[in-house]
Please model this.
Amino acid sequence: MEPVEPLEEYQQRLEDKVLSPLTRAGPRYYLIVGLLLLVIAWGLYAYVTQYREGLYVTGMRDRILWGLYVSLFIFFIGISQAGTLISAILRLSKAQWRVPITRMAELITVAALLLGALLPVIDQGRPDRVHFLLLYGRWQSPIIWDIFAISTYTIGSLIYLYLPLIPDLALARDKIGHLVSPPKRWFFRTFSLDWRGTARQKRYLIIALGIMMVLMIPVAVSAHTVVSLIFATTLREPWDNPMFGAYFVAGAIYSGTATIVIVMAVVRKAYGLEEYITRQHFINLGYLLGCLVLVMMYFNVLEFVTNGYKLAGEGEMHFQQLFTGTLAPYYWSYALGGMLIPGLIILFPWTRNIAGVITASVLVNVGMWIERYFIVVGGMRVPIMPYEPASYFPTWVEWSIMAAAFAAFTLIIVLAMRLLPIISIWEVSEQYGEEKIISRREAIGTAVSQSVHPEYAPTFRRAQTTEESQS
Amino acid sequence: MRVWTFWPLSLVAILMWLLSVSLTQAQSPAGTELELILPDESAVGQETELRAHLVNSLGGAVVGAEVTFLREAVFMNTGNDLILGTAVTDETGVAVLVFIPRSEGEMLITAEFYGDSQYGAAFATGVVPIATGPALYVEEERFRVPGINVSLFAAVLGGVWSLFFVVLVLIWLISREGEIPNPMAGVESD
Amino acid sequence: MAEQPTGDGTLPEDKSAEDGRRENLRKWQLSRRRLLKIMGAAGLAAVATPMVPGAISKILGASDEVPAEAVDKKPGRLRRWAMVIDLRRCDGCQSIGKPPQCTLGCIEGHFAPEPMQWIQVFEYDLPGGGTQFIPVPCQSCQNPPCVNVCPVGATWSTPEGPVLIDQDRCIGCRMCMAACPYDRRFFTWATPPIPPEALLADYHPERQFPLQKGVTSKCDFCPDIARGGRLPYCAQGCPNSAIYYGDFEEDMATNGEEVVELSKFLSENQAYRLKEELNTKPRVYYIPGHGQELGRDPYDEGRMPTEWPWEKKIKGAKTWNRSNR
Model:
């Protein structure tokens, strides 16, 4: 039998691997950040143009009055579902394989939410009046529900990202605190909250995590449902659909899962985390994606056999434009490229591998982006009075702002990876400890005892040795 | 000279004309008079009784005649008469119409009998001062689901936010727990 | 006849209608300013507590009383404006060979920027082929979807009926435009082309000029000039007197030629409302027809495009199409 690697050694290796990127940055890092900043600057220029000229510079007009920005808003709020799913649902169901990827998932949630919340402001005709929403908000409006749902969700996911970070930040403070720049050291010291890993601290942390992981699921589901209500509360036939909320939530989890796979693949490659993020993670997420393909197809079929069966009012024109009309290229690239092909990739064992799952995820995300786009534009395009259907195509301003939004999303993750341990060290150690039949308490104890503030370290080191010698 | 020879003929002609006129008179409808009896005052939304008394030239009641009541309507600087309704005179010759005025001010009412084969036409006008009153047009209330209001909205939101607060308190507890009361004590005792 | 004191809120001829209107507007604006102050105070409280929207909506509810003061009536009695469009007399102005005069009148009266047709004449198909013309202003719904969804209370239904927009409040989210099932809301995508004379006017929600960039605007039902005893611009412009403007409270309506009893007129002529099935309860009624009273042949399609009379005066202004770039 293979000799079991002692927990302490395992942990040492893990810390080196995860914490070392926080201390040094190569030229590649600066190159990436520079490129992203360049894209964001271009987006800012586009936005300044739009602010000066008005929304005239976009492709939107009275009849198709929402476009790329709003579809991008739904898309970003959608991929924010990643964190909730992976870390709350899987944490709740005690799926152990989730542990190394929870941090990434939560980070995606926060980054996507920050961007998602910004996009409606970009879409606003009078961004200078955005504070009116707080001054004169009416609770009857779906937009106000959105503001409360998304702000609650953002705060919740920030807390949820932060809670499991506390022990890791303490570890970073103790291990690499002297190697990093003063602001970073200050960050580690302040935000690790004098974590020493005492029994009480651990108990508080576990209670807090328990509350949050249960709470985050309804909060996330409501946030995305409320996004759908912006559309479903109008009288336009293509959106007039009670299942819209559930459809949006399913789509959100679908694209969120795909986003995790993509980010996971990039981080794994960039940081050489093959040991921790294994083939099994990709396969498991692939299975999840496969299930969600079925859920998405189910919702699509459901729509066709109800609204598509009756073809009431403007519904006929809507289904015509989706299946054979102007929006058919969008619709079929979503239906085939975004659902069927990813589903088949996951289905067949010979394509169900790391590369396959990554390909499927990219396809899913592109497909879901297209879906958001044709939901918004298609719903608007159906004439509600006797006029010719309008046309819409985003202008360079909209494309630039979209590029900047994706760049900002990436930038937030890249910067966060320089600041936060990208894998939850204490949870992975704990899990390793459990797997190797080392008692759970000891595992946490070891993981935590090493994360003591250097000033007090001797005392605790000694205390631990006596404990060990006794056992 | 020649003219004078015809004068008896002219006399005959005049007599004939007088006779024909009197005969025609006897065959045409008898003259009528319409008297409009209006209340001294009324108000918007209040049932207002308009009475028209139709009598013939001899003062006798005209029974079973249809009287039309009209009001003068002026709206946005355009005006014409609007028909309020019709009523039939009873055995005392009185036609009664009850209507509910909707505009305030002096309302010019006209009662008109258009005449029939027996009686000639007649009309009368009068003014009713209409005082203001309650609003008459009531808009349908929208159905509101009981219990769905801002309090519910605030309660749901408040519930979530108070749980966030509990978590923040826990974070604060973690931080307080981390403060080591007397770290040097252990070192010195060693 | 018109010299008589009417007591129905219309002004007698000897008194200037214009004066009355100014007076009304002044009262309106005063009370509105007071309201905004209250709203501002409540808004500050709003930041502190999540209960806010309720508190504000309560105050917004109070705002319903505001225009009431402006009405020339005793408390309790209000104008309940309504519009009846007699389609038997609408031929899309084909018989006079001009663009629809209601739209043109509205544009001139409101200085509506170029692509905006606050009252728009749509050509609907008739069951046996051919078309009918239907002028569609803002339907001023009793159950207005646009008012329901506005996040900042920038659009509201006055108790008199008209749905108004305060473009000083509008944040330009366009949710109301998505919600309107009649396509009757318009957005100023750029700085709108406005003739210089409109720029000097005081802005007022009942008289929406000068228009700002990045806000929503629409037909305001002209309650300000109606209170002064004048018909809305569209009704004034209609050469065939097809547009009746009326008041449900007094139950009268007029097209400038005759006064009719509103409720009776609607019932006797089988009036209908657009998209009745949506339960928006519009205040605009239509009497079915295809211009037969003017001798229009329903198979005679097409009409002149609408012109902006002051369009040529604006140099370098940005205009746009409604439907695309």
